[in-house]
Design goal:
- This protein is mainly α and 375 residues long.
- Helices cover 71% and strands 0% of the residues.
- It is globular.
- 46% of the residues are buried.
Length: 375
């Protein structure tokens, strides 16, 4: 066994320790009845709200907050529902369960889909990776969004229609699908593009038929104002991007947003250029660049970074540079969770992972035979 392989196995020890720490903390909060400290409470409350109220009221924060307080039997922190109406199709069944059972079912679904999409080659690292652990602990949508993106990119070379369906389902959190249309056009994946378009149209049609067009009008108005809410109410220490780091360091919001926009444009160009064909490294670059450029992401949104790091590890198992960047990309969510001293690690690790995977993908594409677009 090489020294590098030993190092990879040794990495499982701090990952496991972090998983135990987060599991102990999250389990203790739930057992103590502090349900509202867990983000899944917002999803569960939204599903419960629609059982007895007009769904449009989800986007009226005063009405939703009053319902959440009644549901929790006391004070509830600010937990708005900024998601597209189609997410309620996924959340509705969980509202039929008590919080404890709903949370367990949500974790099982999230982890199961993510592991299916990621495969079992690096199972232990994928399960224990800090981004996976945070996704489970917070009960957020990061694992499901990653499953749709990772699974779609994995299926794209052989089953483009199925991949397109998964891409279309990213309508539940569309900010993480911004680069996909451009990458698919560049790679001439026409069947995947068509399947994604049909899926989005079907979801929109079903949502309008069931929830009404006013639901979407209201959501569009709410989401336009949501960035200002995030800037003012969500801790910058949990934002693994250049925007969050600059806000922590006291830069103006205008300067931070401008810098993040420049970074987004740069990594977007890299991702699209690298995606000449649906190869594992190109898919990894697309995922890493999506996260590095995203202006609004939180640590629990980073499971795609784990997948990108594993892809880099597979393609270049020996160079220490690749191993270091992959390790940093996987470890960074734990570092930023446990201490607020190193906010630069978020954007630095994601940007390094994005640039290196894109460079490796471009190098591999240049050495490979001409691509054949999916039929």
């Amino acid at each position: 066994m090489t020294l590098l392989r030993l190092a990879w196995f040794a990495l499982l020890l701090p990952f496991a320790a972090f998983a135990v720490h987060m599991g102990w903390h999250t389990g203790g909060e739930i057992m103590a009845g502090h349900l509202t400290t867990n983000d899944f409470f917002a999803h569960w409350a939204a599903a419960r709200f629609t059982q007895s109220h007009d769904s449009v009221g989800l986007y009226d924060f005063a009405q939703l907050h009053a319902f959440q307080q009644d549901l929790a039997g006391g004070f509830v922190k600010k937990l708005p529902f900024p998601y597209p109406p189609v997410l309620l199709f996924l959340l509705a069944p969980f509202g039929l369960l008590s919080f404890g059972w709903a949370y367990l079912a949500w974790m099982a679904l999230s982890l199961g889909l993510y592991l299916w999409a990621s495969g079992t080659r690096h199972l232990a690292w994928t399960v224990l990776a800090p981004a996976t652990v945070l996704g489970l602990a917070y009960g957020q949508t990061g694992l499901i969004v990653a499953a749709l993106m990772v699974g779609g990119l994995r299926l794209l070379p052989t089953r483009p229609v199925a991949a397109g369906v998964l891409f279309g389902l990213l309508l539940i959190k569309p900010q993480f699908a911004v680069l996909l249309p451009f990458a698919l056009l560049w790679a001439r994946q026409w069947r995947a593009i068509g399947a994604a378009a049909v899926t989005v149209a079907t979801l929109l049609g079903a949502s309008i038929a069931v929830q009404g067009v006013d639901m979407w009008r209201t959501w569009l108005a709410v989401i336009a104002a949501h960035p200002a809410y995030v800037d003012g109410n969500v801790t910058h220490y949990g934002k693994p991007n250049l925007l969050g780091h600059m806000l922590v360091k006291g830069f103006s919001a205008e300067a931070a947003h401008e810098a993040q926009t420049v970074l987004f444009l740069a990594v977007s160009a890299l991702a699209i250029a690298a995606y000449r064909r649906p190869m594992p490294l190109a898919a990894a670059a697309l995922q890493a660049c999506t996260l590095a450029g995203a202006p609004y992401s939180i640590l629990y949104d980073l499971p795609m970074a784990t997948n990108a790091a594993n892809a880099l590890r597979d393609a270049y198992p020996t160079p220490w540079l690749d191993a270091a960047v992959a390790t940093a990309g996987m470890s960074m969510p734990a570092v930023m969770t446990l201490t607020s001293r190193f906010t630069w690690t978020g954007f630095a690790c994601l940007t390094a992972l994005a640039v290196l995977t894109a460079y490796r993908a471009l190098s591999s594409a240049a050495a490979a035979p001409p691509a054949v677009p999916a039929p």
